[in-house]
Amino acid sequence: MPVFHQKVASSGGAGSIANPNSLALRRLPLVVIPRKRKYKNYVSRRRNTQLLASLRRCVSDPHLYKSYNHWKGLSSPMTPIKSGAPTPSLAPTSKTSTPLTVPPAVPAHKKLTPNPSPTQNPVKLPSPHAVSEKPEKVERPEKSEKPLAEKPKAAVAPTTVPARAPVSKPAAPKTPVATVAPLAEQEGSSSSNQVPAPSPISKQVSGKLTELKSKNGPPTEKTVLRIPSAASTRAKLAAAETQPQPAAPAKPSPFAPAIAPLRDGAAAQPAPVQNVAAPPRPPVAKQNSLQKPPEPKRSLGAPPKPIVPNEAVHKIDGIEFLPKEPEDGQLPTTSTGGPKALRRAYGSKSGTTICAIGSPNVPSTSHAGPPPPDDEKRLIEKKLSLRKKKMAGEGVPGGSLLTGSKSGVEIGLSLNNNNNVKEQTDEQRAKKTVNAVSAAFSTQGGSGAAQGAPPEEPTTTATIREPPPPGAQKPKSAAVQNLITQLQLPASVSAKVDKIIASGDKARKPSRTGLQTQQNRSKIIEQNPLATDRLRDDKDGHLVYSKGDFILNRFVIHETLGEGTFGKVVRVIDTVTDNFMALKIIKNVNKYREAARLEIKVLQRLSERDKDKQNWVIHMGGHFEYQGHMCLMFDLLGPSIFDFLKNNHYRPYPINQTMHIAWQVCKAVKFLHENKLTHTDLKPENILFVSGDYTTQVMDKKPTKVLKETQIRLIDFGSATFDHEHHSTIVSTRHYRAPEVILELGWNQPCDVWSVGCILYELYTGCTLFQTHENREHLAMMERVLGDIPPRMAKKTKTKFFVNGRLDWAQSSPDAAYVRDNCKPLRRSMTCTEPEHVELFEIIEHMLAYEPMGRMKLSEAIEHRWFRRLPSELKHSTVLTPPTKANFPV
Ligand SMILES: Nc1ncnc2c1ncn2[C@@H]1O[C@H](COP(=O)(O)OP(=O)(O)OP(=O)(O)O)[C@@H](O)[C@H]1O
After folding, report:
1. Closest CA to 360 of 225, 262, 479
2. Three-state SS annotation for 203-246
3. Which of 5, 118, 113 has the alpha carbon at shortest distance from 58?
4. Which fold has domain 537-636?
5. How does pLDDT run across 74-122, given as a tens digit for each residue?
6. What is the tens place of the pLDDT at every residue in 447-483?
7. 863 CB contacts (<8 Å, ≥6 apart)?
8. Is 290 close to ligand 1, i.e. is its CB under 6 Å away?
9. Helix 835-847 with 750-765: angle, nearest 10 deg
10. Which has the closest alpha carbon to 875: 635, 645, 666?
11. DSSP character string of 349-361
12. CB of 566 shorter than 6 A to ligand 1
């Protein structure tokens, strides 16, 4: 979804235009905000809310909405505003740019001329704080709705770290300014620069909706998002291209420069409590699919059937819901080479990041995508054959894992057989079970299911999603490629994201097994009217579900808890035990399934080694596959330390709670390291409190939430890497990424320690230490906070960030001013000089040592005198009692 902002570029600034005496209106592509977390990381996880809020304002404004139909024009600079023309309220001319308030309307005669240097325009964002105080709920657009333009190869910026054009650093904006403008400037024509006469918004919206309807079928809540699909935009632009058009100069992606200045919004943000280095990130809006209009109640897969408690099912270590099923494609579970082969083959932990970095036109093996170059094709074939060989050769010790589609089919068939025999009985049981669990939902209201309504009568006319015809994925594949080209990923996203994006949509193709699954689903429905397959996957592969739906006849879906890269996490009631659980439902996409298997393998290893559960890592209660979705069961936990911080207006945790959390995190990560694992994605979002219960106290004259207890669990082992496995070049989410990763010097366990250091700082201050989205700036921030990067590292890196052993960073640039204003030497962030505080900063300082070898080890950290202050009873983990229907507050 493109969002474009306006700004006024002052004369003489980096973004100035020809007429030095006139302020000119600039419109720039700001950023793509798909709804996925992976992209959120790119933009700024904590700023998405603002962006979406801005977008919402944009599309509800007649002028802006109308402008949205003219992508190209809006990404181009306007000619100086003629006298008499409607003039937006301009901020005083200065060296820095100031955001505009949204102009009332642009007359039809106003032409927008192409922007000679859109990359120079900083983009304004609303204050993160303001939005975090007043979060707006905005649905995120679907990925395919991004009108991504095909970019000529010349425009591709294949360098690892794209150089950013000088940015005119504006003063921190107080008022967010947002307008909608095109992304597809490459496709636009001069004729599209013409801004049409204003018309009533209702007319425009209804026109747009009609267009969307005709292109995308019946409007869902998402399609009504006022954002045209990529297809519709392309069609418009293609039509416009028939007009004569000046050749588009080769230029770097507008995204990198446009996104980098996002921090400007943060710059305006006063620190919530203390004078700390960086403002808090705006809240990450977790998608909750249950916010959608309630769907009729249905049963997923088959009608609910009480599951007889079974030892195998309740086994803690790797519950098996399906029998072992050796077959060709079966994946190794404990073999050391398997994951490596998989990761090589699928790029999950391998060089896909580099692909994404260096080769924006990364080859997609999708049948529908553009054919990859020969070398790359050969490479892919080689990787795939290597993977097959490995999987065939290494066997499956333990046999705990199943291949995706086959097992999915078998679940269905097995249900089918049972149901054929006991059709009527099962229907009755279904109704009974639904009524039983509905009590738990009744306090929240909601759909019919929640009200205890019996399940709908199954029909035999369930809709089965047809497999896409060959070639149907083509536009998406192109979009993915273009996304890679334009987003220039490595500056912003974790390896997990890189690998998924770099692989494009190849996993979405209707593979043979996928087709088999579909066919078998149809067969099941034909044979058994009760096994109505009303399951749908959305186009991203997420399971579409509603409150009260059943999974595997056993788990009743209650609520969405969170959404991650790989799928959604839902709160379910286990009808066998009556316990609430967290079920991570992985997308029905091969790539994610395989990644989930790797996560399962790590979780199994950890469970084996942590039998007494004293290491604060989450334990998997079991896993199974459901209609192509890998499902991982976990104990139900509370909010993440980030979520709680956000809901507490970024007020930092008290020092004693910081100490307890720090202890547990150090112990948990130390446990991983002792087991030859590196987590690689440590961040506040991946540390969950066992309970979110809190009291409210007045602190500094403000009501502040204080947790009653601070037991945590470390989650998300989807990126965890064993020592012997391939280490991809880029890991970690940007803000927590260690310098050796940025400098591509190789990484190991110490990169986790760096992340822990950043997290401790965030707990103490409530703010992100390195609030940036760009490598060079990130390094500059590090130098500001921690001193110069050691010459050895500067010399050794193959990146281009250093000249003569010093960071290539113009101290007089606006970027440098931003860094100076928002970062300060580490110890200056201390709020007092009490020994407790000083000792914490000693630890943080040692954790943020540049040299990985010189960095504090976690075994050393827990021996630090600071932790001697922690009461000994808090040094042990408590075993969780899963919440039940009886005691869980719903
Ligand atoms: N056991 C749990 N109890 C409660 N909520 C959970 C649990 N596990 C995960 N969540 C919620 O779901 C979110 C996503 O989970 P998780 O990080 O495992 O998914 P992911 O796809 O790997 O995410 P990411 O893209 O951040 O790596 C978490 O941030 C958290 O809010």
Report:
1. 479
2. HHHHHHHHHHHHHHCCCCCCCCCCCCCHHHHHHHHHHHCCCCCC
3. 5
4. Phosphorylase Kinase; domain 1 (3.30.200)
5. 444 444 433 333 333 333 333 333 332 323 333 333 333 333 333 333 3
6. 333 333 333 333 322 222 333 343 333 344 454 444 4
7. none
8. no
9. 150
10. 666
11. SSTHHHHHHH-TT
12. yes
Cα of 716 vs centre of ligand 1, distance in Å, is 6
Contact 847, 756 (CB under 8 A): yes
Q: Whose CA is nearest to atom 31 of ligand 1?
A: 562
pTM of the model: 0.52
Bridge partner residues of 563 (DSSP) = 568
640 lines ligand 1 (CB under 6 A): yes
Q: Is the CB of 565 under 6 A from ligand 1?
A: yes
C-alpha span between 240 and 245 (Å, rounded): 9
Cβ neighbours, 10 Å, residue 526: 11
Nearest residue CA, atom 12 of ligand 1? 562
Distance 731 CA to ligand 1 centre (A): 18
pLDDT classification of 553: cutoffs 50, 70, 90: confident
Identify the CATH assignment for 637-875 out of 3.10.20.90, 3.40.640.10, 1.10.510.10, 3.40.50.620.
1.10.510.10
Q: Same CATH fold, 637-875 and 537-636? A: no
Indicate the pLDDT class of residue 425, thresholds 50, 70 and 90: very low
pLDDT at 444: 34
- Which segments of 743-790 does DSSP mark as H helices, in order? 750-765, 775-786
pLDDT score of 725? 95
The pLDDT of residue 71 is: 42
Q: Looking at residue 839, what is its pLDDT? A: 97
Of 109, 121, 251, the residue nearest 185 (C-alpha)? 251
Decide whether any atom of ligand 1 lies within 6 Å of the 582 Cβ.
Answer: yes
Task: Report the DSSP beta bridge partners of residue 884.
Answer: 579
Residues known to be catalytic: 681
Please tell me whether residue 3 adopts helix, strand or coil conformation.
strand
Question: 386: which 2 tokens?
Answer: 């290597």
**Any idea of the CA torsion for 323, 325, 331, 332, to the nearest 10 degrees?**
70
- Say if residues 686 and 715 touch (Cβ distance below 8 Å): yes
Q: In this predicted model, what pLDDT tens digit does every residue of 628-643 receive, in sequence order?
A: 999 999 999 999 999 9
ipTM over 0.95: yes
Measured CA to CA in angstroms, residue 301 lies from 643, 711, 794 at distances of 33, 37, 57
What is d(CA 304, CA 530) in angstroms, rounded to the nearest whole number? 10
What is the three-class DSSP state of 633?
strand
Distance (angstroms) between ligand 1 centre and the Cα of 47 equals 19
> Which of 688, 712, 719 for a ligand 1 pocket mutation test, highest count of atoms within 8 Å of Cβ?
688
Cα separation, 623 vs 551, in Å, equals 12
pLDDT at 859 over 60: yes
Any idea where the domains of the chain sit in the sequence? 537-636, 637-875
Here the tokens at position 861 are 């950290």
Average pLDDT, integer, range 487-504:
43
Looking at every residue in the chain, the average pLDDT score rounds to 60
Q: Taking residues 16-22, report their average pLDDT.
A: 41
What is the structure's pLDDT at 674? 97
pLDDT of residue 60: 52
- d(Cα 462, Cα 440) in Å, to the nearest integer? 28
Residue with tokens 């990364």: 362
DSSP string, 380-419: HHHHHHHHHHHHHHH--GGG----HHHHHHHHHHHHHHHH
Atom in ligand 1 nearest the alpha carbon of residue 37: 25
Between the CA of residue 457 and those of 290, 302, 445, 527, 554, what are the distances in Å? Answer: 22, 12, 21, 16, 19
Binding site residue list for ATP: 584
What does the block give as tokens for 854?
């010189």
- Please state, in angstroms and as integers, the Cα–Cα distance from residue 299 to each residue in 8, 242, 580, following that order: 55, 51, 19
Strand-pair partners of 556: 550, 573
Q: Half-sphere exposure (CA, 13 Å, Cβ side) for 491?
A: 30
- Give backbone dihedrals phi and psi of 384, rounded to 5 degrees, phi first: -65, -40
